[in-house]
Amino acid sequence: MTKNIFFKISAIVLVLAGCAQPKEKISPPMENQTTQKVVVYQLMTRLFANTNTTNKPFGSIEENGVGKFNDINNEALQSLKALGITHVWYTGVLEHATMTDYTSFGIKKDDPDVIKGRAGSPYAIKDYYDVDPDLAVDVKNRMKEFEQLVDRTHQNGLKLIIDFIPNHVARSYQSDAKPANVRDLGEDDDKRVAFKATNNFYYLPGESFRVPEESQAMAKTLYPGKDGRYEEIPAKVTGNDQFTSSPGINEWFETVKLNYGVDVQNGKTNYFDPIPNTWEK
Question: What is the pTM of this model?
Fold first, then answer.
Protein backbone atom coordinates (compact mmCIF):
# COMPACT_ATOMS: atom_id res chain seq x y z
CA MET A 1 0.00 0.00 0.00
CA THR A 2 2.75 2.41 1.03
CA LYS A 3 4.68 1.47 -2.11
CA ASN A 4 1.68 2.31 -4.36
CA ILE A 5 1.19 5.71 -2.70
CA PHE A 6 4.90 6.49 -3.23
CA PHE A 7 4.66 5.72 -6.95
CA LYS A 8 1.48 7.84 -7.32
CA ILE A 9 3.09 10.84 -5.60
CA SER A 10 6.21 10.46 -7.77
CA ALA A 11 4.07 10.42 -10.92
CA ILE A 12 2.23 13.59 -9.88
CA VAL A 13 5.54 15.39 -9.21
CA LEU A 14 6.86 14.39 -12.64
CA VAL A 15 3.67 15.61 -14.37
CA LEU A 16 3.79 18.96 -12.55
CA ALA A 17 7.46 19.35 -13.40
CA GLY A 18 6.67 18.76 -17.05
CA CYS A 19 3.96 21.45 -16.96
CA ALA A 20 6.20 24.08 -15.30
CA GLN A 21 7.01 27.18 -17.39
CA PRO A 22 10.61 27.33 -18.65
CA LYS A 23 12.78 29.87 -16.85
CA GLU A 24 13.12 33.22 -18.57
CA LYS A 25 16.52 33.62 -20.17
CA ILE A 26 18.50 36.20 -18.24
CA SER A 27 20.48 38.65 -20.33
CA PRO A 28 24.16 38.97 -19.49
CA PRO A 29 25.16 41.99 -17.40
CA MET A 30 25.36 45.27 -19.32
CA GLU A 31 29.05 45.63 -18.56
CA ASN A 32 29.72 42.43 -20.51
CA GLN A 33 28.02 43.76 -23.63
CA THR A 34 30.12 45.45 -26.31
CA THR A 35 29.08 49.08 -26.90
CA GLN A 36 30.66 51.63 -29.20
CA LYS A 37 32.31 54.52 -27.44
CA VAL A 38 31.08 57.91 -28.65
CA VAL A 39 33.94 60.22 -29.60
CA VAL A 40 32.99 63.71 -30.79
CA TYR A 41 35.36 65.85 -32.87
CA GLN A 42 34.41 69.53 -32.92
CA LEU A 43 35.68 71.63 -35.79
CA MET A 44 35.17 75.28 -36.68
CA THR A 45 33.96 74.86 -40.22
CA ARG A 46 35.32 78.17 -41.48
CA LEU A 47 38.82 77.38 -40.17
CA PHE A 48 39.10 73.67 -40.97
CA ALA A 49 41.05 73.08 -44.22
CA ASN A 50 41.72 76.79 -44.79
CA THR A 51 45.21 76.68 -46.30
CA ASN A 52 45.68 80.45 -46.32
CA THR A 53 48.26 81.22 -43.62
CA THR A 54 48.26 85.02 -43.89
CA ASN A 55 46.52 85.52 -40.53
CA LYS A 56 46.30 89.27 -40.97
CA PRO A 57 44.79 90.90 -37.85
CA PHE A 58 41.31 92.20 -38.67
CA GLY A 59 41.81 90.96 -42.24
CA SER A 60 39.01 90.32 -44.71
CA ILE A 61 37.88 86.98 -46.09
CA GLU A 62 39.80 87.75 -49.27
CA GLU A 63 43.00 88.36 -47.29
CA ASN A 64 42.82 85.52 -44.77
CA GLY A 65 40.77 82.97 -46.66
CA VAL A 66 38.10 80.66 -45.25
CA GLY A 67 37.37 76.94 -45.09
CA LYS A 68 34.50 75.60 -47.18
CA PHE A 69 31.98 72.77 -46.88
CA ASN A 70 33.62 71.18 -49.92
CA ASP A 71 37.04 71.18 -48.23
CA ILE A 72 35.82 68.56 -45.78
CA ASN A 73 36.28 65.78 -48.30
CA ASN A 74 36.40 61.99 -48.07
CA GLU A 75 40.10 62.00 -47.25
CA ALA A 76 39.58 64.39 -44.34
CA LEU A 77 36.63 62.40 -43.01
CA GLN A 78 38.47 59.09 -43.27
CA SER A 79 41.40 60.57 -41.35
CA LEU A 80 39.00 61.52 -38.56
CA LYS A 81 37.44 58.07 -38.55
CA ALA A 82 40.92 56.52 -38.32
CA LEU A 83 41.37 58.40 -35.04
CA GLY A 84 38.32 56.64 -33.62
CA ILE A 85 35.99 59.60 -34.13
CA THR A 86 32.29 58.66 -34.30
CA HIS A 87 30.62 62.09 -34.51
CA VAL A 88 31.77 65.30 -36.22
CA TRP A 89 30.48 68.52 -34.66
CA TYR A 90 30.38 71.18 -37.38
CA THR A 91 30.43 74.56 -35.63
CA GLY A 92 29.28 77.75 -37.34
CA VAL A 93 27.03 76.25 -40.01
CA LEU A 94 23.93 78.42 -39.61
CA GLU A 95 23.94 81.86 -41.24
CA HIS A 96 25.22 84.49 -38.84
CA ALA A 97 25.92 88.21 -38.95
CA THR A 98 29.11 89.11 -40.81
CA MET A 99 30.91 92.12 -42.28
CA THR A 100 31.34 90.34 -45.60
CA ASP A 101 29.05 91.87 -48.22
CA TYR A 102 26.71 89.37 -49.91
CA THR A 103 24.12 91.85 -51.19
CA SER A 104 24.81 90.73 -54.77
CA PHE A 105 23.31 87.38 -53.75
CA GLY A 106 20.19 88.94 -52.26
CA ILE A 107 21.44 88.77 -48.66
CA LYS A 108 20.91 91.90 -46.59
CA LYS A 109 24.12 93.59 -45.44
CA ASP A 110 24.72 93.62 -41.68
CA ASP A 111 25.65 96.74 -39.72
CA PRO A 112 29.31 96.31 -38.66
CA ASP A 113 28.68 98.14 -35.37
CA VAL A 114 26.84 95.10 -34.00
CA ILE A 115 29.28 92.45 -35.22
CA LYS A 116 32.26 91.03 -33.35
CA GLY A 117 35.19 90.59 -35.73
CA ARG A 118 34.94 90.75 -39.50
CA ALA A 119 33.76 87.17 -39.85
CA GLY A 120 31.25 87.63 -37.03
CA SER A 121 30.32 85.36 -34.15
CA PRO A 122 28.97 81.97 -35.29
CA TYR A 123 26.51 82.25 -32.39
CA ALA A 124 24.94 85.51 -33.61
CA ILE A 125 22.45 83.81 -35.93
CA LYS A 126 20.78 86.03 -38.53
CA ASP A 127 18.70 83.32 -40.21
CA TYR A 128 17.75 79.99 -38.64
CA TYR A 129 16.66 78.66 -42.03
CA ASP A 130 19.88 79.24 -43.95
CA VAL A 131 23.58 78.36 -43.85
CA ASP A 132 26.64 80.61 -43.78
CA PRO A 133 27.49 81.86 -47.30
CA ASP A 134 31.17 82.13 -46.27
CA LEU A 135 31.31 78.33 -46.30
CA ALA A 136 30.12 77.81 -49.87
CA VAL A 137 32.14 77.76 -53.07
CA ASP A 138 28.97 78.70 -54.95
CA VAL A 139 27.00 81.01 -52.66
CA LYS A 140 23.75 80.49 -54.54
CA ASN A 141 24.02 76.73 -53.95
CA ARG A 142 25.22 76.95 -50.35
CA MET A 143 22.44 74.76 -48.96
CA LYS A 144 23.13 72.07 -51.56
CA GLU A 145 26.83 72.11 -50.65
CA PHE A 146 25.93 71.65 -46.99
CA GLU A 147 23.56 68.79 -47.82
CA GLN A 148 26.37 67.14 -49.78
CA LEU A 149 28.60 67.44 -46.71
CA VAL A 150 25.90 65.73 -44.64
CA ASP A 151 25.71 62.87 -47.15
CA ARG A 152 29.50 62.64 -47.38
CA THR A 153 29.82 62.44 -43.61
CA HIS A 154 27.32 59.57 -43.43
CA GLN A 155 28.91 57.76 -46.37
CA ASN A 156 32.18 57.72 -44.44
CA GLY A 157 30.53 56.00 -41.49
CA LEU A 158 30.31 59.09 -39.29
CA LYS A 159 27.43 60.92 -37.65
CA LEU A 160 27.24 64.69 -37.47
CA ILE A 161 26.16 67.42 -35.09
CA ILE A 162 25.52 71.09 -35.82
CA ASP A 163 24.91 73.94 -33.40
CA PHE A 164 21.37 75.17 -32.80
CA ILE A 165 21.34 78.37 -30.76
CA PRO A 166 17.83 78.87 -29.32
CA ASN A 167 18.75 81.35 -26.58
CA HIS A 168 19.48 84.39 -28.70
CA VAL A 169 19.92 85.70 -32.26
CA ALA A 170 21.89 88.44 -33.99
CA ARG A 171 20.68 91.96 -33.29
CA SER A 172 20.18 92.26 -37.04
CA TYR A 173 18.16 89.01 -37.37
CA GLN A 174 16.04 88.86 -40.50
CA SER A 175 15.28 85.62 -42.27
CA ASP A 176 15.10 85.58 -46.06
CA ALA A 177 14.87 81.79 -46.25
CA LYS A 178 12.02 81.07 -43.82
CA PRO A 179 8.94 79.11 -44.98
CA ALA A 180 6.09 81.20 -46.40
CA ASN A 181 3.86 80.51 -43.38
CA VAL A 182 6.44 81.68 -40.80
CA ARG A 183 6.46 85.26 -39.52
CA ASP A 184 9.86 86.76 -38.76
CA LEU A 185 11.05 87.04 -35.17
CA GLY A 186 9.85 90.32 -33.69
CA GLU A 187 7.68 91.14 -36.70
CA ASP A 188 4.46 91.24 -34.66
CA ASP A 189 5.91 92.30 -31.28
CA ASP A 190 4.29 94.97 -29.12
CA LYS A 191 7.37 97.14 -28.55
CA ARG A 192 5.59 99.47 -26.14
CA VAL A 193 6.03 97.03 -23.27
CA ALA A 194 9.11 95.41 -21.71
CA PHE A 195 7.53 91.96 -21.63
CA LYS A 196 4.59 90.30 -23.27
CA ALA A 197 4.13 86.55 -23.56
CA THR A 198 3.42 86.86 -27.29
CA ASN A 199 6.54 88.95 -27.99
CA ASN A 200 9.63 87.26 -29.41
CA PHE A 201 12.07 89.68 -27.75
CA TYR A 202 12.48 91.63 -24.50
CA TYR A 203 12.42 95.43 -24.78
CA LEU A 204 13.55 98.54 -22.92
CA PRO A 205 10.73 100.99 -23.78
CA GLY A 206 11.80 104.60 -24.22
CA GLU A 207 15.50 103.73 -24.55
CA SER A 208 17.70 103.68 -27.63
CA PHE A 209 20.46 101.12 -28.08
CA ARG A 210 24.00 102.45 -27.71
CA VAL A 211 27.04 100.77 -29.24
CA PRO A 212 29.71 100.03 -26.57
CA GLU A 213 32.20 102.90 -26.29
CA GLU A 214 35.18 100.58 -26.78
CA SER A 215 33.66 99.39 -30.04
CA GLN A 216 33.19 102.99 -31.15
CA ALA A 217 36.90 103.67 -30.56
CA MET A 218 37.86 100.83 -32.92
CA ALA A 219 35.34 101.83 -35.56
CA LYS A 220 37.31 104.00 -37.96
CA THR A 221 40.75 102.45 -37.48
CA LEU A 222 40.00 98.74 -37.76
CA TYR A 223 36.70 98.14 -39.49
CA PRO A 224 35.46 99.93 -42.59
CA GLY A 225 31.82 100.90 -42.41
CA LYS A 226 31.67 101.29 -38.63
CA ASP A 227 30.43 104.67 -37.43
CA GLY A 228 29.72 103.91 -33.77
CA ARG A 229 25.97 104.00 -34.25
CA TYR A 230 23.19 101.44 -34.59
CA GLU A 231 19.57 102.51 -34.63
CA GLU A 232 17.34 100.37 -32.45
CA ILE A 233 14.37 101.95 -30.67
CA PRO A 234 13.39 100.61 -28.25
CA ALA A 235 16.58 98.77 -27.34
CA LYS A 236 16.42 95.01 -26.95
CA VAL A 237 17.88 92.96 -24.09
CA THR A 238 21.21 91.28 -24.88
CA GLY A 239 21.66 87.56 -25.40
CA ASN A 240 23.32 87.21 -21.99
CA ASP A 241 20.43 88.82 -20.08
CA GLN A 242 21.76 92.38 -19.80
CA PHE A 243 18.69 94.56 -19.33
CA THR A 244 20.47 97.73 -20.39
CA SER A 245 20.50 99.84 -23.53
CA SER A 246 24.25 100.47 -23.10
CA PRO A 247 25.93 97.05 -22.80
CA GLY A 248 29.71 96.84 -22.37
CA ILE A 249 32.18 95.52 -24.93
CA ASN A 250 32.48 92.21 -23.04
CA GLU A 251 28.72 91.60 -23.06
CA TRP A 252 26.92 89.84 -25.87
CA PHE A 253 25.91 93.22 -27.28
CA GLU A 254 25.74 91.86 -30.84
CA THR A 255 22.90 89.48 -29.87
CA VAL A 256 19.40 89.80 -28.43
CA LYS A 257 17.63 87.44 -26.03
CA LEU A 258 14.66 85.42 -27.24
CA ASN A 259 11.43 85.41 -25.23
CA TYR A 260 9.84 81.99 -24.79
CA GLY A 261 7.14 83.19 -22.41
CA VAL A 262 9.24 83.79 -19.29
CA ASP A 263 8.94 87.14 -17.51
CA VAL A 264 12.55 87.32 -16.34
CA GLN A 265 12.24 90.55 -14.36
CA ASN A 266 9.18 89.45 -12.43
CA GLY A 267 10.22 86.26 -10.70
CA LYS A 268 10.73 84.39 -13.99
CA THR A 269 6.99 83.79 -14.16
CA ASN A 270 6.05 81.37 -16.95
CA TYR A 271 3.36 82.03 -19.54
CA PHE A 272 3.25 78.78 -21.49
CA ASP A 273 -0.49 78.44 -22.11
CA PRO A 274 -1.04 79.14 -24.92
CA ILE A 275 2.45 78.24 -26.14
CA PRO A 276 4.30 81.43 -27.18
CA ASN A 277 4.93 81.51 -30.92
CA THR A 278 8.69 81.94 -30.42
CA TRP A 279 8.72 78.15 -29.92
CA GLU A 280 7.29 77.71 -33.41
CA LYS A 281 9.59 80.07 -35.32
Answer: 0.84
